[in-house]
Amino acid sequence: MRVPWKRLSPSCWSVRARVTAAATLMVGLVLVAGVVVFYTLVQRTVYGGLHQRGDLVVGDLAALVRDTDPHGLLRPKDPDFTILQVQDDRGHVLAYSDALRGRGPVKAPRPQVVDRPEDHVIHVKRFDVDVYMVGERIRTSFGFRTIYAGAPLTELTRNKGAFIGLLIGAAITGTALVAWIVAGAVRRALRPVRKMSDELANITGGEPGRVSVPDPSDEVAELAQSVNLTLHRLEALLDRQRAFVGDVSHELRSPLTGLRTQLELALQHPEDEDWPAVARAALADADRLQGIVSDLLILAKLGAGVHVERERVDFGALVRAEASRRDRRVPVEIDAAEGIAVRATPEQLVRLLTNLLDNAERHARSRIWVTAARDGPDAVLEVRDDGSGVPPEDRERIFWRFQRLAEGRRRDKGGTGLGLTISRDIARAHGGTLVAADGDGGARFVLRIPAEDD
What we know:
By secondary structure, the protein is α+β, with helices and mostly antiparallel strands. The protein folds into three domains: 1-202, PAS domain (Beta-Lactamase), CATH 3.30.450; 219-300, Helix Hairpins; 308-450, Histidine kinase-like ATPase, C-terminal domain (Heat Shock Protein 90, 2-Layer Sandwich), CATH 3.30.565. Helix content is 51%, strand content 19%. The protein contains nine helices and 13 strands. The chain has helices at 5-8, 15-68, 154-201, 219-268, 275-304, 315-323, 346-363, 406-411, 419-429, and strands at 72-74, 83-88, 93-97, 118-124, 129-140, 143-152, 311-314, 332-336, 341-344, 368-375, 378-385, 433-437, 444-450. A hairpin with a 4-residue loop joins strand 2 and strand 3 (93-97).
């Protein structure tokens, strides 16, 4: 059976497992380092005290050897340093303590420098313990002598294994305790997240719904609020889509029904019909359908964020060219400054300007004014007419899809009601805004898009 090694990778672990493993590893390393440091400090403390006392014992023994050159039994003055021995330069034992009675020379490193104590830890088989041994080679009137003073490390040697085991056990216990605490804390912290996940899984395509916001005001609560805000936006988008589908079906049904009715009536009595008139009426309905479909495709592309190449455009020149490109029912006065550069898609800006001009021509009594200027970081376009204007309460509604005021329906029965919607979406796609502002009696539309520096 092949082992699924990929499942053992930390990237496949849960958040709880990863956090617990990381915290446990860090704490384990800290505890191990602490144990090593603690043991080292304890060892240095013990050996440091022995070093000071050993130097004193060796110093006293060196003074005694220089004065009397003792032979035979030595009496220890320090209760811990009970191992004493004096050797001549040939290694023969001259004096010794009772602990080394009948023993040969101690097997300790021979000091190399005269009158400088050297300390070592050696193992003495007779005592079956480690011995802290201090040795010194001295010069006397009787010749060179080597003296040794040792203290058995009975307690340290006897309890060394238990002490090390205790430290290792404490480190393991502390690491396991930390792992248990971290795992429990992460489990409790992620409990609201699991609840939100279950609530999101139970949300169907009908209604987005909401998730529960936990009581503590922390990052998880902020996440729940962000999820609810996203769900609210999705719900609003879903409502708009439903309304859009309903409006589209209504707008498409009318010309299709009219076209079908005309053709059915004409076919009932074909010999009595004026077929050129029937064809012209059918063509008018087909043109309306084509206009609706074209506008819907543009809205779909803008809404989907389809990437369109943009280029540096002279905003004033584009406005002058498009505003004067064809004759209109009323005169159009153009005041467009030069040298206003914008990064845009020319075809979309032309569509926006055409929609605004067509709307102004539809409502104007005698004149249309078009201005283009630079205002701080923005390029600003204004299209005004001297018609009846837009009531303040309707200045946002006219940008809704398929929303047409009574006057607009009266003046142009074949419109789709999507022109201003497309214009605002184009403005937003270019990082700008399009609003219906206050005017001197007539309608006034203001477009702002970011301008580029020269």
